[in-house]
Each structure stands twice: as structure tokens, then as C-alpha cells.
Design a protein that fits this description.
Layout: E1 2-7, H1 12-25, H2 33-43, E2 49-56, E3 59-69, E4 78-86, H3 95-109, E5 115-117, H4 124-132
Parallel strand pairs: 4-5
Antiparallel strand pairs: 1-2, 2-3, 3-4
Helix pairs in contact: 1-2
Length: about 150
């Protein structure tokens, strides 16, 4: 039986290993696990950072990381889902949905009325997953897609 729960700094090593697995699966450059674990420990000490860990019989099988940031559009923070990962062998079993549902509930409890997610256009499976859960890239009343741009800070 898989259970999703809020993760804390004590879970940093497990979260780091999952993130490393995620990035290496998709051939994304990634720091060493110990560096990621230190970052998770530091980030999870912040009130505006929320992590969720999915476990099956004590084994970590997925995670998500959400950052809550102040927003001008409404009184609560906007939630940004930075990462959501489920180990490949267990995909399509509802674990991602369980993790996402808990992330949404925790964000709502923190006062966030909205969650943002960036997804690569070519990642059709991930786009279908989020669309199935009510996420859109065309706002109601418009006929054009929202895009995310990435650039240097200096």
C-alpha cells in the first residue's frame, strides 16, 4: 500500500536520492546526492517550501516539491510545483495522483488558491497527467497558450 505524507528535513537524504534518480533518468545534469540532500535540509526548514514523499512498504517511491511565493493577484501565496517524480516501475498506479493531491491540499491549507507547473512541451505523458487533473496552459477566455521563459539573472 502506498502512502503519501508531508516530508521534512529528516527526509532530505531520501528526497535527494529520488531527485538524483529523476534527473539521471531524463539525462539532466544533476549535482551529487549529498549536495542535493544539503539543499533539501536547508529548503525544508523554510515555511514556504513543502515536500511530499510517497512510500510503499517503507520504500520511497515518489516525491514532490512545492514552493509557495507571495502573489499580487490574491491574498495567499501562489504554489509552484517544482518537481514531481514517481519511480518508473510504479508509474500508472495512482502514486503521482496521490502525491499531487496532497501537494494541492497542503498548498490550499497554506492559503494558495492556485498552483503553477512548468512542463516541457515534448513531454506528452506528463502534460496529459496534469491536464487530467485540471491544469491548463490556455486560460479561460483566451485562445493562446501560456509559456514559461528561462533566462539568466545577470
Amino acid at each position: 500500500m502506498t502512502d503519501a505524507r508531508r516530508a521534512y528535513a529528516d527526509d532530505a537524504d531520501v528526497l535527494a536520492r529520488l531527485l538524483w534518480d529523476f534527473d539521471t533518468e531524463f539525462e539532466t545534469e544533476v549535482d551529487d546526492v549529498d549536495v542535493l540532500a544539503d539543499r533539501f535540509r536547508r529548503l525544508l526548514a523554510l515555511d514556504e517550501v513543502v515536500a511530499v514523499l510517497a512510500e510503499d512498504d517503507g520504500a520511497a517511491v515518489g516525491f514532490a516539491l512545492v514552493v509557495l511565493r507571495p502573489a499580487i493577484w490574491f491574498d495567499g501565496p501562489v504554489a509552484h510545483l517544482d518537481e514531481l517524480y514517481v519511480v518508473p516501475a510504479l508509474r500508472d498506479r495512482g502514486i503521482g495522483t496521490q502525491v499531487l493531491d496532497l501537494c494541492r491540499r497542503l498548498a490550499a491549507e497554506a492559503g494558495s488558491p492556485e498552483m503553477h507547473i512548468n512542463v516541457d512541451e515534448v513531454d506528452a505523458d506528463t502534460r496529459r497527467f496534469y491536464e487530467r487533473h485540471g491544469f491548463v496552459n490556455v486560460e479561460e477566455g483566451t485562445d493562446y497558450r501560456m509559456l514559461c521563459y528561462v533566462g539568466p539573472t545577470a
